[in-house]
Amino acid sequence: MKTSDFDYVLPPELIAQTPIEPRDASRLLVVERPTGRLHHRRFYELPEFLRPGDLLVGNDSRVIPARLHGVKPTGGAVEILLLRPQPSESGEDCWECLVRGKRLRPGTQVRIAAKAGGPAEVMATIRSETADGGRIVAFAPAVAQWLEAAGEVPLPPYIHQPLADPERYQTIYSRIAGSAASSTAGLHFTPELVMRLREQGVGFAFVTLHIGLDTFRPVQVEDINAHPMHREWAQVSAETAHAINQTRLAGGRIIAIGTTVVRTLETAAKLALGYRPADPVPDDAVCGWQTVIAFSGETDLFIRPGHRFRVIDALITNFHLPRSTLLMLVSAFAGKALIDQAYAEAIRQRYRFYSFGDAMLIL
Fold it and tell me: Do 95 and 58 lie in a common domain?
């Protein structure tokens, strides 16, 4: 398939600039795969579509304050966005970063702007350039010592209004710091909604996938099979793997909260079969009673139409950017024609799109 097959036109005013309150008051477009029917509901009505024995799986990664501001010795302004830590033979604290500023060549030093109560001085040194235009940056002192005091939570570039409460870009169950962007499908859950679902007999389990900004970048090649998928660190604990395997053995459904959970669980399923994330798997491959296994490491799994889903039975997700791997993933799960229909209906009904927008439940 072609990348242009996943393009669509969105009126700019439908890009949500602020989160709705309360979280679960967002709209919910329910998409039935077997029938193609669409239902217009609210997210707080989610329990009506779940049943005892179902298992919801969320991503508990927490967004770090990854946006940094600094100046070069010449006085030029620099913005640095932390993506992921990198190994360093010299023992320096190095990170892969996106940078914005002029003439940021290897060897350039940047003084990070301190906030009230922050460190007296933080120096960032550009060590090298990456193949996709980023930089490897060494920080002194180490990032962990000052990030909370000096950094800002990054918002996607299509959000132009400042966020009054940075916690509103975190899920209520986020706990393991490491993401450059939020697992936005989980932003709709409130403690009260979680309690209602638990009382109904719906279980909860969590995986971790630290989200990088590459997740949201449009695919640049026309042949989607030629797209080089980014790597992200993910983990499925033994406890979560056991909960998933037991739920499937008991006939319950696995409902992923977001595309990052889908990629993590489908990676765990491939590993259970003895394959690497990016390897093709024969359709007749069977892993026995273990649908998934526990793992910790990087995944470069690219889910696109033609993928055989081995774990999830339903998906909660937001509306995604055109030409993105996320739109390709949901099209693989629900079928491209049905997703095209659902998106066209959401635009007609003036749903709110992207990170702070409304949600879909694909059954």
Answer: no
Please report where in the chains the tokens 């309150």 appear, as a residue. Answer: 21
Give the SS3 label for residue 285. Answer: coil
Whether residue 77 lies inside any domain: the answer is yes
pTM of the predicted structure, to 2 decimals? 0.93
The dihedral through the CA atoms of 7, 333, 236, 152 has a sign that is: positive
Q: Residue 139: which CATH number? A: 2.40.10.240
Residue identified by tokens 């009505």 is 45
Please report, as a single letter, which amino acid is at residue 123: M
Identify any residues that bridge with 336 across adjacent strands, giving them in sequence order.
none
> Residue 273: which pLDDT band, with cuts at 50, 70 and 90?
very high
Same-domain pairing of 57 and 24: yes
- Per-residue pLDDT reduced to its tens digit, 16-27: 999 999 999 999
Per the CB < 8 A criterion, the answer to whether 190 and 24 are in contact is: yes
Range of the domain at 118: 67-150
Q: Tokens at residue 91, please? A: 């023992």
Where would I find the beta strands (DSSP E) of the chain? 27-31, 38-42, 55-59, 61-63, 67-71, 77-86, 93-100, 109-112, 123-129, 135-140, 176-179, 203-209, 232-236, 254-257, 295-299, 314-318, 359-362
Q: pLDDT digits over 113-159, tens only? A: 877 666 678 999 999 999 878 899 999 999 998 998 889 998 988 99
Position 25 in a domain = yes
Same domain, 269 and 146: no
My answer on whether 73 and 202 are in the same domain is no
Q: Are 114 and 122 in contact (CB under 8 A)?
A: yes
Distances (CA, A) of 88 to 96, 104, 139, 335: 11, 20, 12, 44
Q: Structure tokens of 222?
A: 């026309």
Structural domain includes residue 156: no
CA distance 156 to 163: 11
Residues 132 and 15 in one domain: no
Amino acid (1-letter code) at residue 75: G
